[in-house]
Predict the structure.
Amino acid sequence: MLFNFATALVFLIFGGLFVLLNLGISRILQARNPHPVKLSTYECGELPEGESWIQFNIRFYVVALVFLIFEVEIVFLFPWAIVFKDLGLFAFVEMMIFVFILLVGLAYVWVKGDLEWDKPKSVPAPEFSAGHEQTELTEAVISQERGKETI
Amino acid sequence: MRELIAYLANGQTFLADLPEVALNIIFISLGAVVLVTVCAVLALVGVYMERKVSAHMQDRVGPMYVGGFHGWLQTAADALKLLLKEDIVPALADKKLHFFAPILVFGATLATFAVLPFGRQYVMSDMNIGILYILAISSLVVIGTILAGWASNNKWSLLGAMRSAAQVVSFEIPASLAILVIIMAVGSMNLGEIVSVQVGGIHKWLIWKFFPFNFLAFIIYFIAALAETNRAPFDLPEAESEIVAGFHTEYSGFKWAAFFLAEYANMFMVGVVGSTLFLGGWSSPFGDFMNSGPFQVFWIFAKAFGLIFVQIWLRWTLPRVRVDQLMYTSWKVLTPFAFVAIIGVGFYMIL
């Protein structure tokens, strides 16, 4: 068993070495002619505007969380699937209960709208409209803000 | 592999004098070198195939001049050209991570090749958790992608990397569930055992077992694998009409080529894994006919290239999906259907 994992590790290292070797060859062969403009960050020919390491959309975080839940579930399903043939009905019923609970979770996320990418249901109202009736102007601002979020 | 090493250690050659550890390291390294070469050549063949197939689908002829016969050396010439290109690292980039990302991506891709069975005897590492290992290692690729996007310090790169991460983790769920169906049916995660229950002809392939649930699982696996390797119609992380080139916008020369090689090597890996799990792997579709030794390598390559052809075909047929459609496909279509397949197979096996 250790032999098999050692093989995998050697493969990982050799993959890296292959790229390193070719990068070395490339370094010898390539023309090197650096220029400040050439080394600037590409932003469609304009000078880069502002910080590149921007804040990203919260929905990526939600997707990561949902993924984590399901991935842990699948980790539990793998050993079950291997012995399923031997254990038969008992294992099947047991696992169906487990899967059902998780499907309820999926249904919850689905109904909550966290799987929607375009229109999240849980956008809080902006502060300035608290206590006031929303005017057309604030609505326009909100829709603009939502437009920005669409990546 | 072990048998080969044991045989050589007992033989009359000078190798018999070496300690076993050294012998193991030498042979694993040799195997790794061979598979690195195979991997690079496969990527070149894959790129050539993609260009030719896409050309003919669009009523063009594709590359025709380099190398004489139908431009067969075109991709080799391209690779050589990429070696000669200047390696531009943006001044604002995180240089260490920028350098490390392509190495990680290609290394992780090659590491999956260690467990792929190319025949009954032709497998480097016959792990008992082979398929789980593939799932785990192919997640490393997305870490490389995020590194590349983050280290470039470029908005397009970061957006591409974010998309890639969200896409890969979303599609990993249905892919794992589809693979689970096969593990249930076989009772093992060893790729060699999964193939050996399918030996004996096309009718024994697992895709036909528990009809229609395994067939459904195959479709789910294939779609999810397309998305995991960032292939069209799910190539949002590098959607050129929206975010320039996505996570590899700031890469040039051989670093870019490493990403490209890894993409095509991944396509091949998907082809091999898909055919191993569902289409009989290295076994011949005609029972015992042409099912010995080298023919097994032929069959696995034929099946893998068949699936690569389907991937290319889909790329040049379907338009790119939107991000919300992507998430919809993964969470609201593939995941529920994958659960249906698991429950269906469970019922079949109980009854």
User: Anything to note?
Assistant: The two ends of chain B are 40 Å apart (CA to CA). Chain B touches chain A through 92 residues (CB under 8 Å).
